[in-house]
Amino acid sequence: MQDFGKVAVLMGGFSSEREVSLDSGAAIVAALQSKGIDAHPFDPKETPLHELKARGFQTAFNILHGTYGEDGTVQGALELLGIPYTGSGVMASAVGMDKYRCKLIWQALGLPVPEFAVLREDSDFDAVERGLGLPMFVKPAAEGSSVGVVKVKEAGRLKEVYNSLKHLHGEIIAERFIGGGEYSCPVINGEGYPAIRIIPATEFYDYEAKYTRDDTVYRCPADLSEADETLMRSLSVRAAQAIGAEGVSRVDFLKDTDGKLYLLEINTLPGMTSHSLVPKSAAQTGLSFADLCVEILKTAHVG
Ligand SMILES: Nc1ncnc2c1ncn2[C@@H]1O[C@H](COP(=O)(O)OP(=O)(O)O)[C@@H](O)[C@H]1O
Ligand SMILES: [Mg+2]
């Protein structure tokens, strides 16, 4: 096995997803150690990142979610420190965090995204409502975990919803409702992995369905035809490539009632707890959690 030296698993951090990150990190440390790798937890909230070198770390496995973790800032710091790290670099991380700019890139390449409009103070809210129809989804471009995601069902309410969300991060976007099912597809080192069907018991895949309820159903293999499975994997690879994502990412999809697939968003630092989606999908191909962690570690790089 390649010698990775002393490996810091970057976990915890400053974002609201700190707890999820600590869960993922603990699972990764144990997995790497089980493979004989000298891996240790490293929480930048407790120890400043610039201590990595002084403490003898040679490689970083990044599993910090959210702000200062998957948005390009930690990646930039690691570049300056010259410590090889796993996953996407500065630009792909930053673009992946911004749903609006991500959509612009995908659209420019002809990839399918749900029709959308950016809402501003002076938008013609009635025109947007007529254009996208009801129900529609309204969301901030730079949050996550379904924070600020609203399904608007009644006519004439769009401006009020915009006003309640405009303090959140990023542009506020209104999106056509795509109602035929939700899927997610990992990309690992440029290759599409088995899609997962997500069936929330709530009206949509909201914060509760993601983190607190235990009745969300995940199906892998998903319920797609062979042709759609192949299409979804190839769209995932192209969507990740489009923003320059590296290592592991996870591309989320919606299917409409006619069966057409749409890109919903990309996650450049997906969760890695033992029950997270990426490990579930990898397991379908015979890749164990520990082997998956080693595969990811192999991609650590700077520059
Ligand atoms: N256009 C849409 N049509 C149908 N459902 C949507 C749409 N946009 C968002 N949703 C629902 O809201 C959830 C959260 O939205 P998403 O854009 O993925 O934000 P987040 O980054 O917070 O996960 C999705 O998983 C899906 O269930
Ligand atoms: Mg999402």
UniProtKB/TrEMBL annotation:
It is found in: Cytoplasm. The active site is at E17, S145, S276. Binds 2 magnesium or manganese ions per subunit. GO terms for biological process: cell wall organization; peptidoglycan biosynthetic process; regulation of cell shape. Keywords: ATP-binding, Cell shape, Cell wall biogenesis/degradation, Cytoplasm, Ligase, Magnesium, Manganese, Metal-binding, Nucleotide-binding, Peptidoglycan synthesis. It is an enzyme of class 6 (ligase). Transmembrane segments: none annotated. One of its GO terms (molecular function) is D-alanine-D-alanine ligase activity. Its EC number is 6.3.2.4. Pathway: Cell wall biogenesis; peptidoglycan biosynthesis. It catalyses: 2 D-alanine + ATP = D-alanyl-D-alanine + ADP + phosphate + H(+). Residues 103-298 form the ATP-grasp domain. Mg(2+) 2 binds at E265, N267. GO terms for cellular component: cytoplasm. Mg(2+) 1 binds at D252, E265. InterPro entries: ATP-grasp (IPR011761), ATP_grasp_subdomain_1 (IPR013815), D-Ala_lig_Van_CS (IPR000291), D_ala_D_ala (IPR005905), Dala_Dala_lig_C (IPR011095), Dala_Dala_lig_N (IPR011127), PreATP-grasp_dom_sf (IPR016185). Gene3D superfamilies: 3.40.50.20, ATP-grasp fold, A domain (3.30.1490.20), ATP-grasp fold, B domain (3.30.470.20). Cell wall formation. Belongs to the D-alanine--D-alanine ligase family. This is D-alanine--D-alanine ligase. The gene is ddl.
